[in-house]
Design goal:
By secondary structure, the chain is an alpha+beta fold. The protein has 8 helices and 37 strands. Strands 7, 8, 9, 10, 11 and 14 form a 6-stranded mixed sheet that branches. Strands 30, 31, 32, 35, 36 and 37 form a 6-stranded parallel sheet that branches. It is globular, with a radius of gyration of 35 Å. The relative contact order is 0.08.
Length: about 525
């Protein structure tokens, strides 16, 4: 009977102390377990059990399983003189802890609610004249936070294609997911080969064979479902080639491929299309059909006994005949901006020429600074509005003609060099017009324009305020083994770290024997694969 009275008094004082009328959601009949849900939706659970007062976490709440708890005991007592002492073992104990409630998956969303609570219990003996003890219980708590998040969705590869130098993977990027895990198998167990940002990855660390890939979303320490919709790809490795200037032509050498019985040599023509010029069993060839101070691009494929041919490299290997040099084309999209003059100043330090693909923004007065400094001014887009630009072929040319007229008016330059918003390989255009990039890449050249993509990505398009060290590292890694680098960077106010990284990027290319140049209509094309 005494215990029941103490419990009722404790509950009443707990409720009265906070002037809250808890909603009684469950009355567990197992001894002294009671549940209260406060008006703010925070669940508070107290178990009054004899002389002990505890916070008790049940195995389930409203039919949903509770996975884990953490707690720490603490207790106080007050002596006859009113002095409070901290103790570890007393009739009534308080518990402090953090409980994690992991609810079941509902409608594609997994809620994790974290209730951080504090309970203090003090038992104060009051002595009567008859020497009998009377007990009271004071309870207090504070709720700190509650959070929730979405589950990581199942992800699928949309393509996995071999190009002779590796396998290119792509997927649809999701806003909530910042990193993607790439898994690969060569007939055995899958293993994580890389964690990538963005929506693509190029796997060149493989030999000829058949490979299977899948991807997962990664958020912090959590990873999405593995093994969703894997894609299987057969890969036939192309030889790695080297080019050198000889006295009477360009010497092409390549590594032998084990399964190959012969090799095909391809050379880009004036339109940037690879044309087959030779078939032979050896691993070297001298091309004498060249002119000095001109740039040439080659690729070599392997052919096996069943006449299977490896895919041609998209970029190929380039060399300017007559001089043993490498070229880098630094390109800046989306300008001009307040950073344009800063970029030009850094370029001047290295006597470097670059190409600016401009838009019709509110800083067009800086266009003249670009041309006056000897750099190439080129066309990107007037609006940079994908929905408008890629709604139709005519809509694209309406936008292109507008930026062309603006550049001509501000600089006097009738430029015919362009870069498609998102690049020629973009997939976002498919949302507005199916197959439009296949049409536009042909149409622009029919109208006398030359379009350029890129083969070295600085990564500054993936966000703002990216660490300059990361941008520099991206450029170094992505330039490896490339003698003709077309580097993608951006000239906007939001890309201030690109400006910070530029000095060391220029220094890297200069120290590695590259010559800086601006793009011209006679430059060899740099084209990516069309995906729409």
């Amino acid at each position: 009977m005494k215990q029941a009275i103490i419990i009722l008094v404790a509950v009443a004082m707990f409720i009265g102390a906070f002037a809250i009328s808890p909603q009684f959601i469950t009355s567990a009949k197992s001894d002294n377990l009671e549940y209260y849900e406060l008006p703010d939706g925070t669940l508070k659970i107290f178990n009054y059990n004899g002389n002990d007062t505890k916070v008790t976490i049940p195995q389930t709440i409203n039919g949903k399983k509770v996975s884990s708890i953490a707690d720490k005991s603490i207790g106080y007592k007050t002596d006859k003189n009113g002095k409070k002492q901290l103790i570890n073992d007393f009739l009534i104990k308080g518990y402090y802890g953090t409980a994690s409630y992991k609810y079941a998956k509902q409608e594609g969303i997994l809620f994790s609610c974290y209730h951080h609570f504090k309970v203090t219990v003090v038992k104060e003996p009051t002595y009567s004249s008859k020497g009998e003890s009377k007990y009271t219980c004071k309870c207090g708590y504070e709720e700190l936070r509650e959070t929730s998040y979405k589950t990581i969705p199942d992800l699928e590869l949309i393509s996995a294609k071999a190009d002779g130098e590796g396998i290119s993977l792509s997927w649809i990027e999701i806003d909530e997911i910042k990193n993607y895990g790439i898994y690969r198998s060569n007939g055995g167990e899958f293993s994580l080969i890389n964690t990538e940002t963005g929506n693509s990855y190029f796997d060149d660390q493989i030999d000829s064979g058949t490979y299977t890939y899948y991807i997962t979303g990664v958020a912090g320490k959590n990873e999405g479902k593995k093994g969703v919709s894997p894609i299987r790809v057969k890969y036939f490795k192309s030889p790695k080639i080297t080019l050198d200037s000889a006295n009477n032509g360009i010497s092409i050498k390549w590594s032998a491929v084990k399964s190959a019985v012969k090799y095909n040599i391809y050379k880009k023509d004036a339109d940037g299309v690879f044309q087959k010029i030779k078939e032979l069993k050896e691993t070297s060839f001298l091309d004498t059909d060249v002119q000095k101070q001109s740039e040439y691009c080659y690729t070599v494929t392997s052919v096996d006994s069943k006449r299977n041919e490896s895919a041609k490299s998209l970029a190929g290997k380039s060399l300017i005949y007559g001089r043993l040099s490498k070229i880098v084309y630094l390109t800046f999209d989306d300008g001009p901006s307040k950073n344009t003059k800063k970029i030009i100043k850094i370029l001047k330090k290295y006597n470097a020429k670059a190409t600016f693909f401009v838009t019709g923004n509110d800083k067009i007065e800086y266009m003249k600074d670009i041309t006056d400094s000897g750099h190439t001014i080129a066309l990107h887009t007037y609006t940079h509005n994908y929905k408008k630009i890629y709604s139709s072929v005519s809509a694209y040319f309406k936008d292109l003609n507008k930026i062309h007229a603006l550049v001509l008016k501000k600089t006097g330059v009738d430029t015919k060099i362009i870069r498609f918003p998102g690049g020629a390989s973009n997939t976002i255009s498919a949302k507005y017009s199916h197959g439009i990039m296949s049409k536009l890449t042909k149409s622009v050249e029919e109208k006398g324009y030359k379009y350029f993509d890129w083969n070295v990505d600085s990564g500054d398009a993936s966000g703002n305020n990216i660490d300059p060290k990361k941008l520099i590292r991206n450029v170094k890694i992505n330039s490896k083994g490339i003698d003709r680098c077309v580097v993608l960077m951006h000239d906007t106010l939001a890309k201030s770290t690109t400006v910070e990284a530029l000095d060391k990027i220029c220094k890297f290319y200069k120290s590695n024997g590259y010559e800086f140049a601006g793009l011209t209509t006679k430059s060899l094309p740099c084209h990516q694969k069309i995906n729409n």
